[in-house]
Amino acid sequence: MIVNMTYTVMNAAPWNVLVPIYLFLLSISAGTIMITGGSRLLGGQIDQLWQRRAGYLSLVTLALAAFILLLDLHRPLRFWHLFNPANFNVNSPMAWGAWLLLFFGLALIFSLRPFTFHLSGSAGAETAATGEGATHRSTLFIMFILSLLLAVYPGFELGVLQGKALWQSEILPAYFLTTTFLAGLAVTMLIGPGEGINVRARGLMLGGIIASLVWIISRTLLLAAGGEAGILALRTWWSNPFFYLGEILLGLILPMGLLLAAKKPDIARLKFAAILVLIGVFCMRYALLTAGNLAVLP
User: Fold this and answer.
1) pTM for the full model?
2) N-term to C-term CA, the chain
3) CA distances for 123 relative to 46, 48, 118, 120, 130, angstroms
4) Can you give the CATH number for the domain in which 25 is found?
5) How many beta carbons lie within 10 A of that of residue 142, not counting itself?
6) At residue 56, does pLDDT exceed 80?
7) Domain count, the chain
């Protein structure tokens, strides 16, 4: 006896705008530490005020990202199950992401102790003034590694989902890493001392923009050669205005034009380019998530 069973599969988008906002805030938090921590590890000098602003901004955006993630859960009060070692799934990027958020937040809080609690005595004042208590090399290294992991893990989390041609690519983690770097650089340009970062920030931002365009071109070519599913994903992606207007035009092309047109360091031009880059980083995440959900063969 042969029994034929018919299933109806609905390609509904399971995520709303909260997820792109969560990923955007996470990129600011991780990217800010990536820039400031990486600069210190390479021997760069960072102003104490800039360092404090970057640390607190990273912590606040991380807390907001975690709160938005809880709002997106169907049963937010059961979030603690993510941190139950008995429930840890080594094959789940979401499980790794939850613990990364926790460790990164704890490392941030630890690094900000001298700025949060006023140390007494001349030794304590000197420690807080130089920032050594908050930026000890081992703590910096740990935070830098955690920021890199936080930057790339959304690419792995999306990549393991079946039936989503737009997301299933080895390029995606590098794409997230590059745009997180751009987000962190843009934020530090906005909150940091203008005169000291102009020349280096301009070159780094141009490099990040070019790298992002390379990932977009590479992903486009791979999707074009990916059969029917790839063509559908490519068409859905490139028809999304958040992608071609928000990410490419506002977030990459216009900032690159502003930076290349500057004949000399221009603080106002750099800060405007940084704002455009942040808009592009958010649009990248929104377009990638919405297009990836829609580009599914029936």
Assistant:
1) 0.84
2) 29
3) 20, 16, 12, 8, 11
4) 1.20.1630.10
5) 17
6) yes
7) 1
